[in-house]
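To close the chapter, one final illustration. This time we ask the reader to focus less on the individual chains and more on the assembly as a whole: which components sit near each other, and how the overall shape emerges from the parts.
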Amino acid sequence: MRTIKDTDLKGKTVLLRADFNVPLSEDMKITDDLRITSTIPTIRYILDAGASVILCSHLGRPKGKPDPAFTLAPVAERLEELLGEKVIFADDPEVTGAVTDEAAARLRAGEARVMLMQNTRYREEEEANDPDFSRRLASYADVFVLDAFGCAHRAHASTVGVSEFIPACGGLLLEKEVSYLKDRLQDPERPYTVIMGGAKVSDKIELINNLLKKADRLVIGGAMANTFLKAKGLNMGTSKVEEDKLPLALEILDNAKAAGVEVYLPTDLRCASEFSADAECVVCSADAVEDDMMALDIGPRTEKAYSDVIRSSATVVFNGPMGVFEFERFASGTRAVITAMAESEAVTVVGGGDSAAAVASFGMSEKMSHVSTGGGASLEMLEGKVLPGVAIME
Ligand code: AMP
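The assembled structure is written out below.
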């Protein structure tokens, strides 16, 4: 993949597509600036290489029309604080209209080195990947840099379309995501363990099938494990089970066996009589779930076994919690697995979305080799799909 490290940027103007889709409070304050701070190294790299930067991003869903509820103005302010230098904000309802033309002229004249365009989704041409809009975006710059990994699975004007008009390369964040979610998993350090959990088997079938091609061990927890246990003939009481996916679960177990992958399922469970944070937690053996009980977490014996598997692995991919980690009483299994990952010497990779939220909720994000910033994009990459935003640089 071509990155900014292989590109001569001196004296150039760079159009940098970032993911500044940050959460905002009702009074338009940024409540979590991780997406901005994750892009700062790329911005600094470009500035240090002697280029100026025009940033663009979407924010929320303004449905193709200008809407002050989705302005990037708070992002411009935060960027100025983080970079410690002036950021020209082109507050242009047309995104690529006269206001932006004038702001770009000020940038060229040397008034600042950084400029931020208005929300690309103010225009319906963005999601339609309209070539005229892409050409207008590209007209402000010499080079296009994509750093918005979370948007790389969408072929929009500002993520893919612009690359038709100016040379494209990946930013530092995009490079790190691709390195951990794809390159290193092609030829992983072994033993390579994949931990799968979360709500459903059906959501992750492509993911499991792709990871099985390379993995040595498949560790299953969460509600997903219930479906596997039931498929093996165990009573799961009132647990969340995908009844129509029982044959699929057996097929996955057969595929794993054929591929020589060791599969680990819970041998004990933490159960409750209702789905509630206050429900009493009862530990039982996986083959002794009562009719009126539901499994909400893996049990202590399973926790220990899974932690041992992780500690003896060289590569670990984690996707999906081991139980209802949002309830403190049923967070133990997920915490144990994440702690074992944090303490291990292995290369540890966390898929985005719920899994990243679980790791963050235990304060262990920093202890992982990589926590993906992309939800849907990380899933698609782990499924082995080609992301349009990555394909343009390969
Ligand atoms: P996913 O988005 O598929 O990764 O699923 C994450 C969700 O699965 C979390 O919100 C968990 O609360 C939920 N979950 C995990 N284990 C269980 C379980 N045993 N029963 C019900 N929900 C679960």
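Residues 42 and 172 are 5 Å apart (CA to CA). The pocket of adenosine monophosphate is lined by residues 198-200, 203, 222-223, 240, 295-296, 320-321, 323-324, 326, 354 (CB under 6 Å). With these observations in hand, you are ready for the problems at the end of the chapter.
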